[in-house]
Please model this.
Amino acid sequence: MLPTASSSIPRPRRRLVLALLLPAALLVANPARAEERERPPVEAWDLWSEPHPGVRYLRRVTTAPCTVHVLAIDLAEEGVALELTPHADRWETVRTLAEEEGFEAAVNGGFWESFSRPGGLHVSAGEAWPETHDDGHYGFFAVRERRGRRRALISPPEAFVDPPPTDLALATSGRPMLVRDGELDVLAIDPVESANRRQPRTAVGVSADGRRVWLAVTDGRQEHSKGMTLYELGRLLAELGAADALNLDGGGSSTLFVERLGGVINAPSGSRWEEALGFGVERVEGEETGRRRRTRDGREMVYVRGVEREVMNVLGVRARAPEAATEPPRAPPPLTLPAEVPEVVTLPPRAPPVSLGRLREWLRPVGWGLGTLLVVTITVKRAYRRRRFQS
Model:
């Protein structure tokens, strides 16, 4: 029940007080803002490969339909390390940043807000990005370095670690928590409005000892892959062994690069405005049946080509080459699927039509400058009119 307005509160302010208290009262009356929807059971087919010692790759196809890509990384393996691209190298595609940095694998990293401002904490090579901090709104994935040993961790949004520890080698922001202590974090997922929607997503999971890391990317907004809900993504990472997991920037940013498997190995969805202008995910025409092609044994082959989106930063993986690595980079081998499930062939994605990340950064100071100029102009003009009137 809402409290009555006290006589000590001035009458003009009563409406404001009620407007502020009403949302809180409704939340108390109905605390469950979202719940997982029941869905039909999903079948899945997995294929594991090992492009590098200490780095395994999982490709999973489900009947949702959804195509999932996961890198399982052992930080205790010799030569294996994780890095975050520096602040100076922001707003490029995952492929461009991975190739420039010489990463063996990479995924898109943390969140950003309006005018391309980084959201939450970001640390590269032990140095925090300018104007970034743990704000209690985002959590972060990090790698800590102590006595030459690196271990990963996930700090939940409510932990509010500020200033960050000095031994963080890298950190990048995310929300919400997906897994906590090995269990799906329903309390963190439920308040997210899009939790029940299947979308392209990126997430990171960490084992209890901090030695193993899972980087997961799901294709979405496409005919061959609708994506995953946050609940499904959390269960996937818990199934793989993650004690804690955090959702990273997703949507059109979700991209996985593995150099030894041919580069970008998923089909990025692009952003919605790109799709509206005709630059979105493209179904490539086949050789025999228009948009699809059938092999001699009757299997349907679906060819898709995504469009990469520029991202603020990239989580990169360094690893040593296999001892018998003589073959050139190649695409992942096909899955053994039932005849009724089409095999998806992912072609190299198209480059983004325009680059907006740096442009959005410039809009903020330009906007402030124009606003300040307008205020100064109005103030000077009013002062001139007042002085003229008094004369």
Summary: The first helix runs from residue 11 to 29. Helices lie at 11-29, 94-101, 186-189, 230-240, 272-276, 357-390. The chain has a mean pLDDT of 83. The chain has one domain: 46-356.
